[in-house]
Design a protein that fits this description.
The chain is mainly α. Helix content is 71%, strand content 0%. The protein has one domain.
Length: 281
């Protein structure tokens, strides 16, 4: 099979997978599926009260943005032959675009039920922020290991990864971390017009989701950078413990990301904001 044919096959597979996912999530229409998805979202995020038509529309819109982001990430991954982390990043970008598509309230508009002086840790627990920083920390640690690793052997003169590339990868990871935290802070402080306690609860639920999506950008970038640095640690001249560490690092980071997400969900992380930002009666 030619390279072009293989690319089209991958595009077809991803297109079919996204259409199937969109249909099952209610993002492609269908009142029953949309309502069912909204009910699940409300239960997962701890939203009080009944699921109304407005919430159903809001959840369906988010699903469409997310699927569009995943599609763009998949196309970018196929076109550039890059990391599948681009798909993960595309998901986060789509979800963030949904939040930003909601018009912000004008300056001076109150949030009605509680003050606008909310913090990042009102929407996500502190340990989750620590996990995000730890994911970034893997990049400079792997880069330092690459710098300190002994060189030698018969292939010592074979050109390896340039130091500027390794430094650039660490800079990309640092930029993603800074961007994630700044974007999350912006989302937390962004005013949103609400007219009732129910509207406030819905706004906070989606805001908490958007903050988590912003943090996913760091996770996706850290995984991609760790994979690239692991290749650098397998340069022919690199010797010692650096080689097996480089081989296992991306796998360990991926498993850690899955574990963090599982613990967050199992521990009621999506409902964490309810204990910090109670909804008034």
């Amino acid at each position: 099979m030619s390279e072009a044919a293989a690319t089209w096959v991958m595009v077809g597979i991803w297109t079919g997978a996204l259409l199937l996912a969109g249909a099952s999530l209610g993002a492609l229409g269908g009142a029953r599926l949309e309502h069912r998805r909204a009910v699940r979202f409300a239960a997962r995020c701890g939203l009080p009260g009944e699921v109304d038509a407005g919430l159903v529309r809001r959840v369906a819109r988010r699903q469409r943005f997310v699927l569009a982001g995943v599609a763009l990430g998949a196309l970018a991954s196929i076109a550039t032959k890059g990391s599948i982390a681009l798909i993960w990043g595309g998901l986060a970008v789509g979800a963030l675009a949904d939040q930003l598509a909601s018009p912000a309230a004008p300056d001076g508009a109150p949030r009605v039920a509680h003050t606008t002086g909310t913090r990042l840790t009102d929407y996500v627990p502190g340990w989750l922020l620590g996990a995000v920083v730890a994911a970034f920390a893997c990049s400079p640690l792997l880069a330092l290991l690459w710098v300190l690793a002994p060189r030698g052997g018969v292939d010592a003169d074979v050109p390896g990864t340039p130091g500027t590339e390794v430094a650039g990868l660490v800079a990309v990871a640092a930029t993603a971390l800074a961007g994630s935290l700044l974007l999350a802070r912006f989302l937390v402080r962004r005013r949103q017009r609400v007219s009732s306690a129910a509207d406030l609860a819905t706004d906070d639920a989606f805001r908490a989701q958007a903050v988590r999506d912003a943090l996913h950008l760091t996770a996706a970038t850290s995984l991609a950078v760790a994979f690239a640095l692991s290749l650098a640690l397998h340069d022919p001249a690199v010797q010692g413990v650096a080689r097996p560490v480089g081989g296992w690092a991306p796998i360990v980071l991926l498993l850690a990301a899955v574990a963090v997400g599982t613990v967050h969900e199992a521990g009621g992380g999506p409902r964490y904001w309810r204990g910090r930002l109670p909804v008034p009666a």
